[in-house]
Amino acid sequence: QLRLVESGGGLVQSGGSLRLSCAASGFNLDFYTVGWFRQAPGKEREGVSCIDTGNGSTYSADSVKGRFAISRDNSKGTVSLQMNSLKPEDTALYYCAADFSTRSCHTLPGYEYWGQGTQVTVSS
Fold first, then answer.
1. CA dist 37 → 1, 13, 67, 124 (Å)
2. 12-48 residue pLDDT tens
3. Distance of CA 31 to the CA centre of its chain
4. CB neighbours of 95 closer than 8 A, spacing ≥ 6?
5. Element (H or E) spanning 25, and its range?
6. Which helix (H) or strand (E) holds 13?
7. C-alpha span between 47 and 105 (Å, rounded)
């Protein structure tokens, strides 16, 4: 069974940091384009950051540029999202997604595999 599992969410004060991790079972995440998305209550899901397979190019939403960084840990087969200088508006359910594509991740119309999400709550 192919699935993604996120971990690392939690409650943190404004200005704090969290590191989310996305792991895959049933397939090798090294060969997949991976994105992090989030959805806050009452809001639409939005893309946060993504990383290409191959050249490893990364892209981030303007709202998180300079604060969040996506990276691969090929030794563990995981993709992480390092989140610094967190703000209350970053509070959301964070999902990772993967797609077997060579397209630039920010141009993908959709992702094939999705995790269940991990909650991030930032208190003011």
1. 22, 21, 15, 22
2. 999 999 999 999 998 889 999 999 999 999 999 999 9
3. 16
4. 6, 36, 37, 38, 39, 45, 114, 115, 116, 117
5. strand 18-25
6. strand 10-13
7. 10
